[in-house]
Amino acid sequence: MNWKKTSLLAGLLLALANSSYAQSKTSPTSPLTQASAQGLITLPFNPDVLDYAKAEDWQALTTQLGSYQVIFHGEIHNRLSDHLIQAELVHLLHQQATSFAIGVEWFQAPFQPWVDAYIAGEIDEGELLQRTEYFTRWRYDWRLLQPIMHYAQGQQIPVLALNAPAELTRQIAREGLDSLSPEQRAQLPDIQPPQPYHAERLEGFFGQRLGDHGQIDYLISAQRTWDETMAANAAAWLANHPKSRLLLFAGQFHLEYQHAIISDFLRRLPDLTGKTLSLANGEFEEWYENRFDGFLLTQPLSLPAHGRLGSHITPQGQACLRELIDDSAAESAGLQINDCIVGFNNQPIRHFSDLMLALYQTQPNQQVELLITRPAGENHRRAQLINLKLD
């Protein structure tokens, strides 16, 4: 496969995010076709597939997808190539099945109502990000996930917020499962200890990073909480929709070697044994035999840089500056701490998420116009236009 790392990547992201499938429920375009149109990949897209006995390449693999009710894809969270494969899997299942859902690690389960509201078109993208606290709970560049979420909204495909609340997993990592109150514990499913081989891998993973410092058992409990919660939420949805199919996207560590999410999921729905497929993609050096049912050999794609202000901004509520970075665009333009950005190139800014969506559409060194409000005496603010060259 020939992946081309070019400046056209920004064009791909814009095309995918704003393409016809975001508005039309008929004949959405393949994400890979759009990637080819932007010069990022060469068609036919047909990387080799390792470990999967029924297919040696991507084209052959796609003919087998209909044999599985559940398809897991293990991602590297910040790698565009992985999310492009995921977007294409969504497209392929949409062509094959009238009923399926996309389960994701990116959103935490308590925020499911806001994800549902976005898919239903009741709230916009900025509100989705703000209401799910995306930029404090997940933080990865939203442009990676935009094509998938826009496709899902355009085609009314349910998206399942699978992950455990960060407040609980952080507490477990610090103090252990026994530190949870009965009310907190009630928010989580049954959490089993890892299977012996999985336990050995977790101990090696955390031990290598912590040495003799920290409570490895607590970190393993937090990891198991993530795995069990995502598996339980996915299994619960499929139990209520037994004729539907499921795509589940999570980090590779949660899915490899059929452990963690996959074994936890099948413990709850044993009748689906043999009806699941685990996939991942990456370079040959990342492949280990039987790590996944199928491993696509791809080269990484990275996101292009976008323009930056050079300041720390409150992630919840209004987009107000709480710290300036020395010699940054914000400092050079005369922005001050407690300035609140309410407009960006004539686009209203309600909150931090709106600001990030606006910045994603810019390039470094681009000239922009900000509308800010600045404190002007007690309980008063003054509006002001600021011209700024982004970092």
TrEMBL record:
Signal peptide: 1-22
CDD domains: ChanN-like
Name of protein: PDZ domain-containing protein
Keyword Amino-acid biosynthesis: no
Entry keyword set: Signal
Domain of life per record: Bacteria
Ranges of residues in domain PDZ: 307-376
Pfam families: Cofac_haem_bdg, PDZ_6
Species of origin: Thiomicrospira cyclica (strain DSM 14477 / JCM 11371 / ALM1)
